[in-house]
Specification:
Layout (H helix, E strand, L loop, with lengths): L3 H13 L3 H14 L4 H13 L3 H14 L4 H13 L3 H14 L4 H11 L5 H12 L3 E5 L15 E5 L12 E5 L3 H7 L2 H5 L6 E4 L5 H13 L6 E5 L25 H8 L4 E5 L6 E5 L7 H4 L1 H9 L10 H5 L1 E2 L3 H15 L1
């Protein structure tokens, strides 16, 4: 007689290949032999979800959890089926429970991310911002594969800075890439000589994911800006404490960049700062720059010391106000930009 484990493995191969009917038959065969087998219940429940039978999926996976509640993936897949039924509060709770059991479960992070930050991905927000602002000069710190740098369109001149870019995208705008650290770039490159523009209109910081380096990049960029320039900063709306640490411990990770926002709000109340609640981890939008300001530069060391140990719990009460969160819908974003840029004119 074929062992139940082999029957489940056979079903799993069918499931991975998309042969859901064959997978269901295998799982039902296993459960006919042992109706309380938690893996069989879980896998059959997942197939039911994939086939759109979410009520049945919830029942099966809940029975699996009753047999073995210590498997993170069971809870995450239960949440997936609950999402399918529109039971979002319960589904979100399932993902948090999955992360309690496995803090690095990427699926749970991604499902929470989609549930808690609905609307456009930050790439789409960035694309809209390019169209709205039509920047003459765009500067990006930390370009990685070039996905966001490629959002620039002619006649924009785009400048990308990264010590080790791994370009996978093509660029339609006039694009110059500097393979160096941002500190080296600001210390050695004459932007006006390189591009014909002494001041940028739009910049995006997505570098090392540490708030102090992000602060240094902002200080250097502000010198090259003007009151109507816009600076965007990625990763300013963290999902959870384990994913918002200075050192990376989970695959889903935003670093401690979020500390930049309360720092700037305290040290530079003259700036207009909003954080767009877009996936995966927010996009800060900073306007009303003052190229002549020396507050951040002269006070850099003291500010970094003051905010280095700011606990994640600081955000527990009034997070949206502390980070200046605005809704992730384009009319709200465009209205904010139009108002702040008009005042900066």
């Amino acid at each position: 007689m074929t062992p139940i484990g082999e029957i489940l493995e056979h079903g799993l191969r069918h499931q991975k290949a998309g042969r859901l009917d064959e997978a269901e038959l295998s799982y039902r065969e296993a459960l006919a032999r042992d109706g309380s087998n938690p893996d069989g219940l879980h896998l059959l429940g997942l197939v039911c979800h994939q086939k759109g039978r979410n009520e049945e999926a919830v029942d099966l996976i809940a029975r699996a959890i009753a047999q073995n509640g210590g498997i993170a993936l069971y809870h995450s897949h239960l949440g997936l089926a609950l999402f399918g039924l529109g039971r979002h509060t319960e589904a979100i709770a399932c993902q948090w429970r999955a992360l309690e059991l496995d803090p690095d479960l990427l699926q749970a992070h991604m499902l929470l991310n989609e549930a808690l930050l609905p609307g456009d991905h930050y790439h789409e927000v960035l694309r809209r911002l390019h169209a709205f602002l039509a920047p003459r000069l765009y500067v990006e710190i930390g370009i990685e594969t070039g996905a966001s740098l490629a959002m620039a369109r002619p006649p924009t001149i785009a400048v990308g800075v990264d010590p080790a870019p791994q370009i996978e995208h093509t660029f339609s705008a006039d694009t110059r890439i500097f393979e160096m650290t941002s500190d080296a770039f600001f210390a050695s490159v004459d932007l006006a000589a390189e591009t014909g523009h002494a001041r940028f209109d739009l910049a995006f910081i997505d570098g090392m994911h540490t708030f102090d380096q992000t602060l240094r990049d902002f200080v250097n960029l502000e010198r090259l800006g003007q009151p109507r320039s816009v600076v965007l900063v990625h990763d300013c709306l963290p999902l959870s404490a384990p994913t918002a640490t200075r050192e990376q411990h989970t695959r889903f990770w935003s670093g401690d960049t979020w500390r930049l926002i309360p720092l700037l709000k305290r040290a530079r109340p003259d700036l207009a700062i909003r954080t767009i609640a877009c996936r995966p981890t927010g996009l800060a939008l900073i306007t009303r720059l003052d190229p002549g300001s020396t507050v951040l530069d002269t006070g850099f060391a003291d500010l970094v010391d003051a905010f280095m140990d700011l606990p994640f719990g600081y955000l527990d009460d009034g997070r949206d106000a502390k980070l200046g969160v605005i809704a992730n819908d384009w009319p709200t974003i465009a209205r904010h930009l139009a108002e702040t840029l008009e005042r900066a004119a």
